[in-house]
Amino acid sequence: MPVRSIAELSDRDVLRRLGETLRLSTTYAYLRLDPFALDSEHWSLRSLQVRHAISNLESLQGVMGFRDQEEGLIVPDIDRCVRSIWPTLVLWIDFLHPVHHVGTERMERVPLQALCDILNELFRTDTPAFQLCKETPRLYELLFLLWLRLDEYVTPGTDVYHCLSYLAHTVDRSMYVVPKRSFMTEIAKAQPFSDRVQAVAGYYKAPHCIPAALAAVGHRPHKLYRKMLVQARLLADAIATLRSDKLLEKISEPFIPISEFVTLQLVMHRYPKDIVCGFVDLIHYLRDMPGGRGNGPARMLCSILSSIWATCDDGRSLAWSLRAGVLPIMIALDAKKSDDILVAHALHIVTRKAYHVRVLREFLKGGEALSFVGATFKGPNTLASYDNEIRRRVNLLQRWSQEKCLYTKCHSNIDAVPVAVRRCPCFSAAYCSKECQRADWASHKPNCVNGVHTVEIGTHDILSLYPGDLSPQDAHFIAFYVRTWTHTHAQTLLQSVIRAQEITPSGSKPHKYNVQVNVGELPVGYDFWILELPRDRQDDSWLTFSATVTRPQGMALVQVMVLPLTALRARAGKSVAEGYPVQGYALEHEFHPMRATE
């Protein structure tokens, strides 16, 4: 056996003696007292007993830091000691907690940093102490009261960055009953389906985490995120004053718990405007820090925002962010570090949400300023195609908002004056007022939803929304978009029909062709498949058009219209005559020769 160095032997001797001390029943004697059983004079935090207890607490935190030394030589002694003082240790953390002292002169004597340090040690997931934490709901409550309300407890002598970073690490570990790394493989398999990812995370969630977080803010979820934003601002101010290069390397990590809450812990489908815009303002603040020191946290906040956008069901959170100027700053961050996946993913979410009417209106207001030019998450040609497609949608949105009133005797039709209209639920009619809708009802009724003409296949042009979380406004615009898109790309669609007829054994028989246009992806493409019609139904083939978008609750499907193949051929012929390529464009994602119906 090789002879150990004198220094190493010395270290082991010190640890052995420390272990012997930890085994004594008198060690940390003051932490074995019940602080709430002491006289009221001890609440001043000036008494000898309280000061010794604080000293014991700081010593315990330091000793727990020796766990990893000398192959865990004193780990059993540390765990045995912590278990023996656990009931009163929790009481002392509660007694010293600033929630009991804020607003008083005692606040200056609260050992804020020591509390953050000891909680960080206790919630280490690889220790028996963590098992005790999981069985102590009050400790979760004290942790979240400290993290979410630290801004209320700060005194001139507080090391804000140290406290917030330690608390963030502790909160991050407290969210699950096992280390998150142990089930990351399951999360990877569940992606990209957000509901499946949340189901996996939900299985491992700590049962006391969310109740404790909500209890700290009066059980109001919106206030919870407002308090997180307050702590994020406090952290950003602390980052601006950091001088240590070692600390600057990890300044993004304290923002991770916020991301975890938004994506997995407490997912909401609508966030208040002040929270969304507050995160955008904070990104601006961090991005403007000298020397680029705030770029890392700014990228993390972009990721947090992208999670908020992804779960929003009507696009309002992204619309508010665009109005607050988030797109140019994300492009600048992306260009600064082209291999950063956080900002790239956030920019990708913007392209996927560009079917919301609210979002397109912000691009309409922004004009040329809202462009993807300069970003690096995709090639220049792809970025240019994104810009072109969004401009087309913006132009289409303007047309959509200025359709003519269907009532022929309306003054807007007589005077040829464009007016804003609202669509009937069937989407085949639009009116400028309720009066015009009532006046035209007799003629429109047969073509409306459940009208006599809508039961015959091929004679209706109706919007029907499959159950989901897509707003009616967005569904109507998507249907209008698909109708226009079909009109434009009729020749490409006809080429899909011809290919299908060539490879299908019953190609000469009437068929039903299903076309699913993926509006949520740029550039827009479609899936195509065939269903054979019963012989007694029709003599002509038909195409059923629908639109799909990825939603927080999964895939939403908008059934748009049914079109006879003869009509598609006629439109395709006109398109070719107007210069559309005979071979069409490569827009088809997937071809299914046959797909069974339900």
UniProtKB/TrEMBL annotation:
Keyword check for Phosphoprotein: no
Protein name: MYND-type domain-containing protein
SUPFAM superfamilies attached to this UniProt entry: HIT/MYND zinc finger-like (SSF144232)
Coiled coil: none
Record InterPro entries: Znf_MYND
Pfam family, one: zf-MYND
Keywords: Metal-binding, Zinc, Zinc-finger
Database matches in Gene3D superfamilies: 6.10.140.2220
Domain MYND-type: from-to ranges: 407-448
Gene Ontology molecular function terms on file: zinc ion binding
Native source species: Schizophyllum amplum
Protein's UniProt keywords contain Mitochondrion: no
